[in-house]
Specification:
- Helix 1 runs antiparallel to helix 4 (177-186) and helix 2 (76-85) crosses helix 3.
- The protein has a single domain (2-210), classed as 3-Layer(aba) Sandwich (Rossmann fold), CATH 3.40.50.880.
- Strand 6 (107-123) and strand 7 form a beta hairpin.
- The chain is built from 6 helices and 10 strands.
- A 10-stranded mixed β-sheet has the order 3-2-1-4-5-10-9-8-6-7, covered by helices on one side.
- The protein is an alpha/beta fold and 211 residues long.
Length: 211
Amino acid sequence: MKLLIVDLLAERKAFGQEGVREIVSHFDNPEVYLWSPHTEDRVEYDFGKVVDSPIDADFIVITGSRRNVSQWEPWMDEVSKLIQEVEVPLVGICFGHQIIAASLGGEVIRAEKQSQLVTTVDYADGSQINALFTHQDHVIDSGEMDVIATSEHCRIVACKHPTRNIQTVQYHPEATAEVIAKAIQYGDMSVEESKMFDLSKNLISLKQALL
């Protein structure tokens, strides 16, 4: 299968390369394509093929980003167009969750402060999970997307489209303990910053959350 990663942390070695590696690990030997419309200054990964525009993929993942949907930039128009036109399965993580909502009639606003924590998420089916959050924007209107999970600090945590194969989460299921350790090793995060996350809790995986 052809897997297109809309790779919006490509300038960061840990949360870019290692986060994407974790995402890719949940697929069965895919051909990986990396599209980063926000930057030309990306880390050179040891896997995947970098492309200048979306390819005809079988599955698409939109990652998190250091940019904000509430502070719209021209390159986001390209991602929004992809979201509106895509016919294959699509999932969005953090920024991906936000830009999918915004592109499908929803609304995203700037939060008063950045959220960096591990907290409980309540799903509509009655299940509870622990998830890691780090974001500055909040979805306050999910547009076409149905809300399927919420938390005390964030009302719209996970969404699913009622008719299209699109799912999103505000949290980071790809931010495993191994990815956090790499972030410290590569200098993407300090030890003190990592202490904000309670990694002793059993965090939901990307496969459980979106696949």
